[in-house]
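Co-fold these.
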Amino acid sequence: MTDAKPIYNKIALIGLGLIGGSIGLAAKRSGLAGQISGSARTEETRKVAMERGLVDQVFTTAAEAVADADLVILCTPVGALGPVAAEIKPALKSGATVTDVGSVKAAVIEAVQPHIPEGVHLVPAHPVAGTEFSGPHAGFPDLFENRWCILTPLAQTVSPDYAGAVDRLDLFWRGCGSQVDRMDAKHHDLVLAITSHVPHLIAYNIVGTADDLEAVTQSEVIKYSASGFRDFTRIAASDPTMWRDIFLNNSDAVLEMLSRFSEDLTALQRAIRWKDGDVLFELFSRTRAIRRSIIEAGQDSDEPDFGRGHAHFRDSDDAQD
Amino acid sequence: MTDAKPIYNKIALIGLGLIGGSIGLAAKRSGLAGQISGSARTEETRKVAMERGLVDQVFTTAAEAVADADLVILCTPVGALGPVAAEIKPALKSGATVTDVGSVKAAVIEAVQPHIPEGVHLVPAHPVAGTEFSGPHAGFPDLFENRWCILTPLAQTVSPDYAGAVDRLDLFWRGCGSQVDRMDAKHHDLVLAITSHVPHLIAYNIVGTADDLEAVTQSEVIKYSASGFRDFTRIAASDPTMWRDIFLNNSDAVLEMLSRFSEDLTALQRAIRWKDGDVLFELFSRTRAIRRSIIEAGQDSDEPDFGRGHAHFRDSDDAQD
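Predicted complex below.
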């Protein structure tokens, strides 16, 4: 694929962690850009980025990296996007597209849009992909393969130029291996609140609760973690800065979904107290169907990951005793 | 290892699902038993058990299977243990050991102990291992490898015979690949409530909440599940009967831990509402340390499972941007 015509002559990656690094590697592999520049705050990240070939050139400041870029991708934590946009404003090329990879969209638009000069197109985006690792070592070129990238184009901007910029970014993400969806920023924030933000919050929360107990030692929690807990710790190992920013910037949707979650949990609590087994059984059966749909949609494998670390396995998935 | 001296001449497995089947395969592989009989309620399970060689002989009733057995392992859901114990009572050999694999212990002892004849030793046990699959196809011989098995011997029974029976069962579980711990049944139930039962409950709960939303479609939940949600659906795909029984039989400890969880979650909710980023950042950093301890203890791998489905990976784990 590397002899395909590049979609952009030059792209700039601001921030070279898991997502920025993976975009660089994916874009190189598929020849999506004539040239890739990048910037990172720390010397160490810049060094690793060049060693791993995440970008062709690396700069200390975002403003240097975006010079002449046709596509600027902001890959910093959400809380840093406003200041970064202010910094690059004078250096942006006319006709360029600015996008991001943030897990929240309405607040990001609010922070970034004021800094976008006339003639530059802001097309917010969110590649729904990640791992529990972060930093310049963490990226890999097929992170986006078969994952979804959500574009949330600005509703009030409807010029043909803008529509063209959106289509081109759509093509870029497909080139990275993603499937692409478009939706309103507010709706995005609600969807991600339930599929990502609240799950992360409750994972962080239960790991914290376990850590605080007096009656159960930390050593016990660790030894018996294979019974379910370890999967929560994996999620709760995600980058703290990134996640703090997500909750601060999507608080309305998170609080709304959290209150639904708590309401439902209270009903389960009541069913346990009153030993209403039917309520529990009905829910526990219903949730299995959703799991099957996720596997059928190719968004997870049906390997028995829950009991991971063994080589052999059986020939059937859902046999019941 | 198959030429080692068997620990028991004959063992009987009552129930041939994930755990029962895995014990049969592990015991055979390591020559832990001279002979293995088993029983299962359904014709289909009995057929699969023989085809897969989970046991040497299979019976329709538990009473037939336990005849002459030196070790009887009850591997049914916790709610069925009382009736099964009543059924096998007249058929138990004098001097035999009866054990189980239930995820709760105090309630199990209460249900089973009244049916244990004099001269038979009840040694409750809980192998802390499993996958999200169930049934006679689901077992594999190394399910217990490097996992912990918790014995909760009866405090009031202190005869040398009983102590010998506990030691022998300890040896058996080590032969299956487990590490073995001993503790009081009540403490076990508290430890498992936080490491396993409450995590499963909140996983089931959030999958149910997502399924009930009007503002977010099920198709959206499925498409964007790679952002965290899918890991919860994996846990929420566990066997409904088994889990209903666990919550009904460990309600006190689960409700206690659940109230701690909810209290902590309310504090996070408040931090989000008041945009107190420091509270969030402090928790999100602390939980990472627990994750590291679990990996160091060999209870999980540090492969980037959260972004599963890619072949290559990077050379460092926790580099920060």
